[in-house]
Amino acid sequence: MPRSVNAVASRRRRKKIMVLAKGYYGSRSKVYTVAKNTVEKGLQYAYRDRKTKKREFRALWIQRINAGARQHGISYSQLMGKLNAKEIGLNRKVLADLAMNHPDAFKAIVDAAVK
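Now predict its structure.
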C-alpha cells in the first residue's frame, strides 16, 4: 500500500508561512525553510514589542508632561503628587496631549493642582 502524505494540508501549512513572508528580501520570501525562520523571529519581535511599545509611550508622555510642567515652575513629580492629592483623575496620555497641543488648558490644570 502506498504511503499517504496529505499534500493538501502540507501545502496549506507552507503557504500560510509564505504569505506571511511576502515582501521579505531575497530567499527570506522565496525559500520555505528560510521564510519559516524569519516569520517565527518576526512574530517573536512583534510579541515582545507590543509590551515595549506601552513602556515607551508612557516614558514619552512623562517627558512631555515634565516639559510642560517646568514651563509653569513645577516638576513632574510634584505635579503628579498634587494632582493625586486633589483627586484630579487625568491620565498621563491626556495630560501629555494637553501639554503639547493645548497649553492653556494644561496651565489651568497646573493652576488647579497647585492651589
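Residues 26 and 35 are 10 Å apart (CA to CA).
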